[in-house]
Write a structure and sequence with these properties.
This protein has four helices and eight strands; from the N terminus they run βααββββββαβα. It is of the alpha+beta class.
């Protein structure tokens, strides 16, 4: 079974780089030192940010969880090593493009933070592959009373 989950894109992650790059671009373009570099550098930065945001996904392939984010982050985790999934809103650097996140903890003390769009289905498939996973969802009654 091979199932790909796209990352949820949240404005809390998307807005800050857009605002910062827009302001920097505006200031550079309205300055006295106009050159092609002033246009190209912000465009390259925009490209990398949007590429990262729109290529972040999580693939469940057999007993593997493959986490991809942009050009540089591509890691494979064993589903059998997952011990706990916890809902979190930590704004730390992670292959997650939303603040609505899941922290996945492994038996080897590794962690990865993800933000799948279909969170419920993502967790259900992981739990079917590993019945020992403990799931802790915060505010679950507000989101869905039947969710774990």
């Amino acid at each position: 079974m091979n199932r790909v989950f796209k990352s949820k894109v949240g404005m809390g992650v998307l807005a800050p780089p857009i605002i910062i790059l827009s302001v920097v671009s505006y200031l550079l373009l309205n300055g006295n030192h106009y050159s092609w570099v002033v246009i190209i550098v912000p465009l390259i930065i925009f490209f990398f940010i949007f590429h990262m945001i729109f290529t972040t996904n999580y693939t469940i392939d057999g007993n593997d969880l493959i986490v991809r984010c942009g050009f540089f982050y591509n890691k494979i985790f064993k589903i059998s090593e997952i011990r706990k999934i916890v809902a979190t809103k930590q704004a730390i650097n992670a292959p997650a493009t939303s603040i609505d996140r899941l922290r996945i903890e492994f038996s080897n003390h590794k962690r990865v933070i993800v933000s799948p769009r279909e969170k419920k289905e993502f967790i259900e498939i992981l739990c079917k592959n590993n019945h020992e996973i403990v799931v802790k969802m915060k505010n679950r009654k507000e989101e869905d009373p039947d969710f774990f």
